[in-house]
């Protein structure tokens, strides 16, 4: 398995495609899917934004392992190297335990936005107890979004975010950690010391960076990787981070994705 070096600065942490919206959760605490038409920039174009917001808690029903594998295969069939496992195409061997995954395909909602087609995933893995410290359980999050501009739209921005809820749920290291302007991009953690999730993802244009105003380690931490640029083709964002919380607490986090494009108004 490919391994990548530590990410300096990342210390302390989805059949019918266009007719299908994956059930993100039974018991989702909060949900919003909105397609928002932005201000018109000219007579020929307008800025459009798709926004997805979910709260995943202990009652949220994830994909089963088989459902997860099926979803990932479908996404790689659709997006190729921009799928959830990047250029590898299949889940890498690792020493983590699958906990669950949640997906969404927002443009199939009644608030579908013209100009964007996208799929989004967040998956959760448990780090082996022997690698956990004290009374805390340790987890690794896998975040993936792929967006395809349609109807002559130009993609401008993809912004996924995971925010942990409660000070006892702590975010630790994350990847990627620094701005990257040339691909392929290595995504993976150097810690904990187990065979982990490590992939490379394409970057044909633009850049991926961490939004410092929406990323912080520690209690109730958050991680927001952002792609920005200008492209008429598929762009994905893949990222990962480590988290921990007391064994007595279940999962609880907010997951949002915002995508922005410039639509051709002609």
Would you kindly provide a written description of the structure presented here, covering whatever features stand out?
- By secondary structure, the protein is mostly beta strands.
- The protein has one domain.
- The protein is 6% helix and 45% strand.
- The chain has 1 helix and 15 strands; from the N terminus they run E-E-H-E-E-E-E-E-E-E-E-E-E-E-E-E.
- Strands 1, 2, 6, 10, 12, 13 and 15 form a 7-stranded antiparallel sheet that branches.
- A hairpin with a 4-residue loop joins strand 1 and strand 2.
- The longest helix is centred in the first third of the chain and has 15 residues.
- The protein is globular, with a radius of gyration of 18 Å.
- The relative contact order is 0.25.
Descriptive labels:
single chain; 266 residues; mainly beta; seven-stranded antiparallel sheet; six-stranded antiparallel sheet; 1 helix; 15 strands; globular
